[in-house]
Design a protein that fits this description.
The chain has 13 helices and 18 strands. Strand 7, helix 7 and strand 8 form a beta-alpha-beta unit. The structure holds D-gluconic acid and magnesium ion.
């Protein structure tokens, strides 16, 4: 089998997605996700202008060799744009291999280690009643665990908190973060956040009891000492994990957080290379790997990092927001089903419009996510539907302190 074409499809059914479609001379096609929220066209151009022609004529079965060719062969390594592009190629080749073998990708990865994947959804509220309603709705939908994000007095609009009650059917995450030519700006106040958050978790525990697994995302906004303080303050509420406390360029910073708290830690959704995890894994500084197949170079390297993590009793918590396309979500669901050290899968569910563009075999039943048994990844792209939703520029918001200083994500 030989690759005959590699096409890049950019579509925006409520938000932007970049998809690579690889076609072979045997008529088998494969899909890969290359979506990089807010920088989508950079990856599309990388693939279209620098990678597509290198794939023509190659044997699609040679996944490892193609990965190394694009990674080691390029001289310029790593970075979110490069690794999202390589990820899309890797996923598309796994998709093709599965279709050629007549097997879902998880079978090629060693077969299922469980019947399905435990998930968590995103509950949020501008006040406690709204938050409680949102938690209830997520439990009714089948989630066995819930992420808790709440407004903070003194912070007017907070990323991760729906601007309308979720019960009305409007989910913040289905909407583009901010369509337009500039990022929206939000105000941030770490002191107000650290002061308020433990009161929210106390209220949630009082309402829902001790058993519901609860998670929280700090979106990298704390210093290590602030993160240590928060982890300690949240210990009575027994979190499943506290995510992205501090920017993790300095992996050593997690030593300080770890020494001060027993709250489990998760990090890595913005990581794109195994080296980003080295100290965190070998010193057991985290409990969950948050990488996404889409931003970590695909299924191939994600499998390898999870094998390393297994040596240290560290589990998966792959990044699954709506800006990971159904193709990327399927890729990591196949991997999550196969590996022994699966922890939990983030699952927000895509919008109706997204499902008209990407047809999925994935199911979410009885509280478990399953990628389905269709050969390959189990996702097909309706190119006509995709064309009906052209790209629209959109940016994630950025944060400023009250005095105007730009703050960390
Ligand atoms: C999460 C994330 C997302 C990201 C988004 C950025 O844990 O799901 O933090 O909401 O902010 O994916 O593109
Ligand atoms: Mg996050």
């Amino acid at each position: 089998m030989r690759i005959t074409s590699a096409d890049i499809i950019v579509t925006s059914p409520t938000r932007n997605f970049v998809t690579l479609k690889i076609t072979t001379d045997e008529g088998i096609t494969g899909l890969g996700d290359a979506t990089l929220n807010g920088r989508e066209l950079a990856v599309a151009a990388y693939l279209r202008d620098h990678v597509a022609q290198l794939l023509i004529g190659r044997d699609p079965h040679r996944i490892e060799d193609t990965w190394q060719y694009l990674y080691r062969g390029a001289y310029w390594r790593r970075g979110p744009v490069t690794m999202a592009a390589i990820a899309a190629v890797d996923m598309a080749l796994w998709d093709i291999k599965g279709k050629a073998a007549g097997l879902p990708v998880y079978q090629l990865l060693g077969g299922a280690s469980r019947t399905g994947l435990m998930t968590y959804g995103h509950a949020s509220g501008r006040d406690l009643p709204e938050l409680f309603d949102s938690v209830r709705r997520h439990i009714e939908e089948g989630h066995q665990a819930v992420r808790i994000q709440s407004s903070v007095p003194g912070i007017p609009a907070l990323y991760g908190v729906a601007a309308q009650p979720q019960a009305s059917g409007v989910r913040y995450d289905h909407e583009p973060a901010g369509r337009g030519s500039r990022p929206p700006e939000e105000v941030w106040n770490t002191h107000a956040y650290l002061h308020h958050l433990p009161t929210v978790f106390e209220a949630v525990r009082n309402e829902f009891g001790p058993d519901l697994p609860l998670l929280h995302d700090g979106h990298h906004r704390m210093t290590p000492i602030q993160a240590a303080k928060l982890g300690k303050a949240l210990e009575p509420y027994d979190l499943f994990w506290l995510e992205d406390t501090t920017p993790a360029e300095h992996q050593e910073a997690f030593r300080l957080i770890r020494h001060h708290t027993t709250t489990p830690l998760a990090v890595g959704e913005v990581f794109n290379h195994a080296a980003d995890f080295r100290t965190l894994l070998t010193e057991r500084l985290i409990d969950y790997v948050r990488a996404a197949a889409t931003h970590f170079g695909g299924i191939t390297p994600l499998r390898k990092i999870m094998d390393t993590a297994a040596e240290y009793q560290i589990k998966s918590g792959f990044h699954g927001p709506t800006d990971i396309s159904p193709v990327g979500l399927a890729a990591q669901a196949h991997l999550g089903l196969a590996i022994h050290n699966f922890g939990i899968q983030e699952y927000m569910g895509h919008s109706e419009a997204t499902h008209t563009v990407f047809r999925q075999s994935m199911t979410f039943k009885d509280g478990l996510l399953h990628p389905g048994d269709t050969p390959g990844l189990g996702v097909e792209l309706d190119e006509e539907a995709a064309a009906a939703h052209p790209y629209q520029q959109a940016y994630l918001p950025c944060n400023r302190l009250a005095d105007g200083t730009i703050h960390d994500w």
